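Hi support team,

I submitted a single chain yesterday and got back a structure, but I'm not sure I'm reading the token output correctly. Could someone confirm the output below corresponds to the sequence I sent? I've pasted both exactly as they appear in my results page.

Thanks,
R.
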Amino acid sequence: MKRVVGKNVLESLTTGMYSNNKIIYREYIQNSADAIDKAIKDGILSKDDNRIDIRINLNRREIRIRDNGTGIPKEKVYNTLGDIGRSGKDFKVEKGFRGIGRLGGLGYCEELQFITSYNGEPIKTITIWDCQELKHLLQPNIAVDMDVLDVVDAVTKQRSEPENADSHYFEVVLIGIDKENENLLNIDEVKKYLSQVAPVPFNFQRFSQLIKVKEKLNSYSKPVDEYNIFLNKEQILKPYRNRVQAGQKEKDFIKDIEFFEAFKENGDLFFLGWYGITDLSGSIRDNDVNGIRVRKHNILIGDNHTLDSFFGSNPTYQRFNRWFIGEIYVFDENLIPNARRDDFEKNLAYIAFKKAVEKTTFKLRTLPHSHSQQRSERKILVSARQEIDKIRNELNKGLTSTGKDRILEKIETLEKKVKKVTGKLPNTHHQNSDSPKKNEDVLAKKTKIIKEIGDITVEVIRSNHYKTDRIPTSYSKNVRKVIQRIFEVIDRTLPEGQALELQDRIIEELQKTGNK
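Hi R., thanks for writing in. Yes, this is the structure output for that exact sequence:
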């Protein structure tokens, strides 16, 4: 009995494969990147001249994706574009290797075309998929006797046309994008998606610190693949910039970047990662940059949530991934993207990768608390400085016995707070948490403030300057004693702020009448 592959597998490999329809851009781009790599290797294209052009025509509801890679020889077009799940690519070095990515566009348009020309051939070959007929044949009660190859033959046709023999390219054309997938034609959305996912260069003008990433990779002889990708003639660059929106801040600057890496047993680089150093005032609100992300061949695997679990199983820890920006470039050939490319296959290489990355992510999740503690300590010192100034001002205005006791109690509390300041700096991944570094500037301020607290304590204890000293001498000694008693009652009865304000007003009124 003849075995067959049912036609419905086509639906699973098209609309059923991806949760985000914009992934078709990634699939076609990675195929283009492989073709460009081969063209460079074959010497028909220089590395700097590689180009992938994406054109979105909203009026015609059409998308074109064209590269200047090798193209496909005429005699190989039928099998290359007609075979399903067989690509002939080497998964160890090439980006697309499962042979199903090119089918991604079938579920989103009326007609899908593949147009290609191979260097040295004076023709171009056009393969056309009738997507409307495909959807019709995939209905449950239609063409029940047809298998997957029968359906492919029924909905595809091919023709050749003259072309310049020096031309070499591959072009995907999606004609008649359906209404349900309108976002595929949204230029802003597509640009944002490509800037995060595609293997494009950094924008060093917006974030100059990232030149260090390129230099670090080059120092390991691991330059990352980059391609010149244009969307409606505008070049796509990664979205990282030197300031982000974090917490309540509109602008939190990326001051520097830190690296972390791991090596295989043979000494080869397993992965290289980097993350941005900010004030960690809150989670980063820019979803186009937040989260430590992982890339292979410089193509994003998953999204900004893929490594959340690397911060811990508890969701409270996982949210800290959103407090950072950064990327991990993996180089192990055994770390294999799964079919959806939303994660890696769960093999031994993945287990080793997760274990190695967690050495950094587990420390990163402690940084927000450490930075918060550091900010609190700075606030304590600033507040102490302000409080000493207030006490000195009150001392200059004169005290009551009750007021003096209150101030001495306040000074004692203030001293305890200041003495708790550690000046501890947050640990980065390369520091030993058992011997954290100290912020010498904070410790110097702490020492100075403790001395001032000691000085002001002595001044308050020795002070014989009472509030009634500001009352005009025209008032008798007995009157002054009565007023002093009134001030004592006010200090014992009212909150500090109200007591001081009322006493000052009484003195002002007495000064007015006493000087007449």
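A quick pointer for reading it: Residues 1-5, 429-434 have pLDDT under 50 and may be disordered. Let us know if anything else looks off.

Best,
Support desk
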